[in-house]
Amino acid sequence: MQRRITPQLDTNDITMIVDGRYLCYRTKYSRGGNLTYNGVNTGVFYGFFNTLQSIANNNFITNTVIMWDISKVGVRNDEFGGYKNRGTLPLTPEEIEEKRKFEEAYLYLTELCEQLGFATYTLPMYEADDLIALWCKQFSKGTNIIITRDEDMYQLITENTYLYDPDKKIMKNLQWFNRTYGIEPEQWIEYKAIAGCKSDTVPGVPGMGEKRTLAYLKGDKTFADKIKQHQDLYDLCYQLVVLPHPSLSNYWLPYKETRLIEDDFSEFCLEYGMTSFIEKIHNFYIFT
Questions:
Q1: How high is the mean pLDDT in each 10-residue block of the chain (288 residues)?
Q2: 80 and 147 part of one domain
Q3: pTM above 0.70, yes or no
Q4: Other residues' Cβ atoms within 10 Å of the Cβ of residue 240
Q5: Torsion angle of alpha carbons 204, 208, 210, 213, nearest 10°?
Q6: How far apart are CA 25 and CA 89, in angstroms?
Q7: Strands 143-147 and 161-165, sheet pairing
Q8: Range of the domain at 190
Q9: Which alpha helices (DSSP H) does the chain contain, by range?
């Protein structure tokens, strides 16, 4: 078990917490997703850093942490074999090659960001979502802005923890959540356990669904007996959706800060033809 480290954070500190895989995957469909330089597909790199720079500069970010998924299966798969088991149609050779290139770029980026001085985190058998939740709960002083579109993380929203959706350019804060769903963020765990989660193939309680679940959480007990009849299934689903995973209750993240190494970043940009970053490099993050 790690020793708990309490950083000397200030209430004015604003940390950008990045769901690394989401942001990489997003670049596949951005305008720069097909960029190449000397035969190398650089779209993932350009889109990743360009998005980070834009968000950081627009929100006066004082620290950036990146959470990476590195395990194809994890503790949740051990608990429920169907977890994230979506079943996919056979891929064409072109699609297989595209997937291979993306995974290659993703793996390279996970290693590169640490070498460049970014504060990065990985944890075998767990997801980036778990790491994000650990950070928000353990380093809650100041403001946290989570970069993701993953609705599972609505449960982490507080007065000083927001979700930012880069696609819709929406900052989802506590007021937005209350207005949109009419419940509290901590109820989102129960919501997901009852209604289920299609993206993670969490089944939920049979016969419920989103509308009935929201009604139940707002006080309509019409379906209370149905939930009790499936108590074991509900308990399993709750275990799958709560963040961080319960087995991490005694796990403490080491506190890290991004200190980007300017010379290394410049060298990387030159190697992959991303000179636009070099031209404005002194406005980019925190250098050693």
A1: 51 90 82 66 86 88 94 90 80 84 89 94 97 95 93 96 93 96 97 94 92 94 91 96 96 93 90 82 62
A2: yes
A3: yes
A4: 25
A5: -100
A6: 19
A7: parallel
A8: 184-244
A9: 20-27, 43-58, 75-79, 93-116, 128-138, 174-181, 188-195, 210-217, 224-229, 231-241, 262-271, 275-279
